[in-house]
Design a protein that fits this description.
alpha/beta; 8-stranded mixed beta sheet; 44% helix; 14% strand; elongated
């Protein structure tokens, strides 16, 4: 007979156990053995290798393995003393940073430090020359206050996210049952101590790591720890060295899904497996997000330009312009240099970036995605590799009946394109018997019967829960089934028989009792000599066995869990009505049964997962599965959800009829790696694995998941990790963006992640990726728009000193540009729509990983400062700040540094050469010319001053505060027009910046109504500054400025749109936009939901 590949596990060699010695020192929670956690990173449990009596003696507790209920347990006084010594049974919360330090961290970002520096420099100017720099009292204060406001916004958003997250967390179960003083009592789980005897039954969450010494049909769900979806049997006998595979251990946080048992507490709190896995996250850090790094790089660029310009023109001013003026030369040139520095700083940009990210985070929250860190919004859009867990993330973590084979007919019970067969009909031949066995031969039960079936919770293991839900949906009187057909006898499932059997008082033509059985197909078939065909038991022939083999292989090949059903109508002649069935006497049949059929179940993909992964792959993002489940099951699921489309190496070898070793590395595109292989992989192996577009890692441990993330990041990938289990948390913490599940996710995983899917919908990840890409595009537009006005502010200040033109714009007007109308308008970019519905998700990631990028990454890494390992803890010691600065300073004087700095890459960064060219060399220069033309036209028309005359008057100080009022009024009108000219041309620049692929005309220009609202508010503020009575005293403007001169900047605005159109057409031809190639074989048809109600996962008893 065929065997079930989905059920058979690969042969795993037992890990060599550490020498089994037992220390007398109890395990405490007051500080984990850091060396053990960070250096060895392996579990330190060896108790499962010793007899329970020896472990009990160690902990000074009295137990009765043969009759557990008679165990004395610990004395209450001893338990109280141990609790005092070792601390409570709780997981240490992650180290919290005080709110003050969080705010200080926000305040000391490079951008805010630049603003604070500009503010301080204004006060230095005030100190140098208090008379002529009174306005600096306000300017300096405003700049510093803006920095604090930026920090406050970021701090508030972080605290808000932290508060929401805290409401989801509950790190330990509240209550548990223990045996103390020879009595079973209920206590708070935090009060458990080493040596306590714990009683756990179906529905309970295990409150600590326990060693089982007595149990009845006990099974636990370890999926949150190991990723293994199958319930694990527990019994006092163990043959495994690996603690995670030990039959006599049950771990903190796992669920009892069947039976009950007694166990001895051997680990509590941080020393449990749960605690040690959580401890792996402590030493991991994802570092700064790509957006944070790029903003820091932009600030460095701005600061370098600003400082460089200020120093150069300070020297020019001192030695050329103000030469020979004595002490006033220093004051004047310092005033000028600081003014230039402040003019370069886009004061409103930090607030713009923070607000744009806040708006995007709020938009994502409406889609049930909680962002803990603002920059995480954009990071999701930048990822190149998405590593996802299977159970609970891609799949529903619930077994669902998919196919039934009975009476030689295949029926599809799950509405899916992948499931072949006739649509399920409860009246079809053999189905009634299948439903009867599913409902009666089961230990699963509903928690209540007073609500509709879809609202009920099923108590039982995953397989029996799926069968129960399926039967309940198709049997009208399901709740009365056990009353109608009471159970007379039962043989529970065990690992030896691999079947479960019940006998019911179910009358039939020849007797009173009916035997029902379900279990492993190959075992059940051996017990049968007939098969049910159209309601009749007919002899089982070789043809029937062949059909069975084909159907079994078909179901198993899909990664389904397959069960066989059988029955026997017990004749009254052999089993009279008063017979009492007995296990010892074995007076019940276990042969000559009637084979009823096969039923397959699977943990089906979540609704929308297939389309979501398809969209990710279309967007150039590599999606790989990292799971603790079986490789065959993982691959089968992967092929259903667009994760695996092509052949693996083994499949290619089978098709060609050759050995696996004969298949070249370039002949296949899919690869499935078993966890046992990971520790022995070389760097070349890792390179080969990550060169494949379709990757699955199966049977992985938490340490493996962490290794996978680190190796991917070493190649330059921006890694996103999704997961819900404790076993996912180290990888979630290390990833560039960790994404946890809220409903099914463990508390540890939520703490480690940077983003949480509140509704557990994987499809939300794809919406987040699109949102991240959109916010990056909009941020780039906003920065491009915002810094364009720097040139009309900086160049006039330079000309003021070098060419002695009258000052076209004063410092206060510069500030109200940056923090006034520009802020209104730049924020509207947050609501810009994509230029096309599918365009964003057809573009490659902005930092694609290629062979060239990997080579460059390694080349740069080879010249980085070498990190030293602490010989005691094994932790990496970061280089000191001075060592880092010294290393970077030396690199500045090497040609290699500058060649690499300007080396061409495929990366798209937030502020690139194209954006700087637009702002400083193209549109910025056009705006500068337009504003200066307007300025000089006003001087000429209103005062009769030609440019040459104006320069002469400036040299003679005829525009100073002591000059005639006529001169000052003309200058005020010219400065007002200069200010309004920048505003008007920036309104045209607003629409010019909106498009990357389109021309700046057409319907798309009207897709964001807030652009017009922002423009209206910004314009109103601009005109208010100029024309409101009383304000000219503050800003140096004039209420009498004629409107007619504003036609000049409007003409230049039209020219900007014309220039951008020509520019766009040229770039289209010279550098056409590269889109991702279409992936052949993607199935983007909507994932169809099951026709049955979703099975609720088992929850712990309160």
């Amino acid at each position: 007979m065929a065997s079930n590949p989905a059920q058979s596990d690969s042969i795993q060699q037992d890990q060599p156990a550490a020498e089994p010695t037992m220390s007398e020192k109890p395990h405490t929670n007051k500080g984990k053995d850091k060396k053990k956690v960070t250096n060895e990173k392996q579990l330190d449990i060896t108790e499962h290798l010793f007899p329970i009596e020896e472990i009990a003696a160690r902990h000074g507790v009295s137990i009765e393995p043969t009759k557990a209920s008679n165990s004395n347990g610990l004395d209450s006084s001893v338990a109280a003393q141990r609790l005092l010594e070792n601390g409570p049974n709780i997981l240490s919360p992650p180290k919290q940073i005080s709110p003050f330090m969080k705010f200080f961290h926000c305040l000391t970002s490079l951008f805010n430090l630049l603003l604070i520096l500009a503010g301080v420099l204004n006060y230095i100017l005030l100190a140098v020359d208090p008379k002529d720099n009174k306005v600096n009292t306000y300017l300096g204060a405003i700049l510093i206050v803006v920095a604090f406001i930026n920090a406050l916004i970021e701090f508030y958003q972080a605290q808000k996210s932290a508060k929401v997250l805290q409401s989801f967390l509950n790190l330990m179960p509240q209550k548990c049952y223990v045996v103390r003083d020879h009595k079973v009592i209920q206590i708070t789980a935090a009060d458990l101590v080493l040596g306590d005897v714990v009683f756990a039954r179906m529905g309970d969450k295990i409150p600590a790591d326990i060693m089982i010494f007595a149990c009845t049909d006990m099974k636990v769900d370890n999926s949150s720890l190991t990723g293994e979806t199958d319930p694990q049997e527990r019994n006092p006998h163990n043959e495994h060295k690996n603690p995670l595979e030990a039959n006599n251990l049950a771990f903190n946080g796992s669920l009892v899904v069947n039976g009950e048992g007694y166990g001895l507490v051997i680990r509590t709190g941080d020393n449990t497996v749960l605690g040690q896995i959580a401890g792996l996250t402590a030493g991991e850090d994802s570092g700064k997000s790509p957006l944070s790094r790029e903003i820091d790089d932009f600030v460095k660029i701005i600061a370098t330009i600003a400082i460089g310009t200020a120093v150069i023109f300070f020297l020019i001013g001192y030695f050329v312009v103000y030469n020979g003026q004595g002490s006033s030369a220093i004051s004047n040139t310092l005033n000028f240099a600081i003014g230039i520095f402040v003019a370069w700083v886009p004061e409103g940009l930090p607030a713009t970036v923070t607000m744009l990210l806040t708006i995007a985070a709020k938009r994502m929250a409406q889609q049930n995605v909680l962002v803990k860190d603002l920059t995480g919004v954009e990071t999701l859009g930048a990822i190149t590799l998405l590593a996802t867990d299977k159970t609970g993330t891609l799949t529903r973590n619930q077994m669902t009946v998919t196919n039934i084979w009975s009476s030689n007919n295949m029926y599809s019970a799950f509405r899916s394109a992948a499931n072949a067969g006739t649509p399920f009909d409860a009246n079809s031949p053999g189905i009634a018997e299948v439903l009867a066995i599913a409902s009666l031969c089961s230990r699963a039960k509903f928690d209540r019967t007073d609500v509709p079936i879809p609202e009920r919770q099923v108590l039982g293991d995953a397989t029996e829960s799926g069968l129960t839900r399926f039967a309940a949906a198709n049997i009208g009187n399901f709740d009365q089934m056990n009353d109608l057909y009471p159970r007379a006898f039962e043989v529970p499932f065990n690992s030896e028989n691999k079947w479960a059997m019940t006998i019911h008082d179910k009358e039939h033509a020849t007797g009173k009792f009916t035997l029902l059985m379900k279990g492993a197909p190959e075992r059940i078939l051996r017990l049968c000599n007939t098969i049910l065909i159209n309601g009749e038991a007919v002899p089982l022939t070789a043809e029937h066995s062949k059909s069975y083999d084909e159907m079994y292989a078909l179901m198993a090949s899909k990664g389904h869990r397959v069960l066989a059903f059988a029955q026997q109508l017990l004749p009254r002649s052999q089993y009279p009505d008063d017979v009492v069935f007995d296990k010892e006497k074995k007076n019940y049949p276990t042969a000559d049964l009637c084979f009823v059929g096969l039923v397959s179940l699977e943990d089906p993909p979540k609704h929308g997962v297939r389309e979501a992964i398809g969209r990710c792959r279309s967007a150039g993002i590599r999606v790989m599965m990292v799971t603790g489940d079986h490789p065959l099951t993982a691959e089968a699921i992967g092929r259903k959800i667009n994760l695996v489309l092509s052949d693996t190496k083994e499949m290619v070898a089978k098709q060609r009829g050759c050995s696996v070793d004969e298949v070249g590395d370039n002949e296949y595109n899919a690869i499935v790696i078993h966890g046992e292989q990971i520790d022995s992989l070389t760097e070349e192996d890792w390179d080969l694995i990550f060169s494949k577009p379709e990757i699955i890692f199966a049977r992985t441990s938490p340490k493996h998941k962490l290794q996978i993330v680190k190796h991917a990041q070493a190649l330059g990938h921006i890694v996103g990790v999704t997961g819900d289990g404790v076993n996912d948390s180290p990888a979630l913490k290390k990833a560039d963006l960790g994404i946890a599940m809220n409903i099914s996710g463990s508390d540890v995983s939520k703490e480690a992640a940077a983003m949480i899917l509140l509704d557990d919908n994987f499809a939300s990840t794809v919406r987040g990726i699109e949102e991240g890409r959109l916010i990056f595009a909009n941020l780039k537009k906003s920065i491009q728009y915002t810094i364009t006005h720097s040139m009309p502010e900086v160049i006039p200040n330079l000309l003021y000193v070098i060419a002695s033109i009258p000052l076209p714009i004063n410092a206060m007007l510069i500030l109200v540009i940056d923090l006034g109308f520009e802020l209104f308008i730049s924020l509207t970019f947050a609501w810009d729509q994509p230029e096309s519905k599918t365009g964003l998700m057809r573009l490659p990631p902005r930092k694609p990983v290629t062979a060239a990028s990997i080579e460059r990454k390694r080349r740069l890494a080879s010249r980085a400062l070498v990190k030293v390992l602490d010989p005691e803890t094994g932790e990496e010691i970061q280089p000191s700040l001075m060592a880092t600065l010294h290393h970077e300073f030396k690199a500045l004087f090497t040609g290699l540094y500058w060649r690499e700095k300007f080396e061409h890459t495929d990366d798209e960064v937030l502020v690139d050469a194209g954006l700087l060219s637009w702002a400083y060399l193209e549109i910025g220069i056009i705006e500068t010319i337009g504003a200066l033309v307007t300025f000089f036209v006003v001087l000429y028309k209103e005062g009769g001053f030609t440019p040459a005359t104006a320069v002469q008057m400036q040299k003679l100080n005829q525009f100073s505060s002591s000059s005639p009022d006529f001169n000052l009024e003309v200058l005020a009108k010219a400065q007002s027009c200069f200010y309004l000219s920048i505003m008007i041309m920036q309104l045209f620049n607003l629409f010019a910046c909106k498009t990357r692929f389109r021309l700046p005309f057409g319907k798309y220009m009207f897709s964001n109504p807030r652009s017009f609202v922002g423009g209206a508010f910004g314009s109103a503020l601009g005109f208010f500054i100029v024309y409101c009575p009383g304000l000219p005293v503050v800003f140096g403007t004039s209420n009498n400025t004629p409107f007619v001169y504003l036609l000049i900047p409007m003409a230049f605005g039209v020219f900007i749109l014309f220039y951008v159109t020509v520019r766009q057409l040229i770039l289209r031809r010279l550098r056409p936009t590269a889109m991702n190639e279409e992936i052949i074989g993607l199935n983007m048809a909507p994932t169809m939901k099951t026709i049955f109600s979703r099975t609720k996962s088992i929850q712990p008893n309160p």
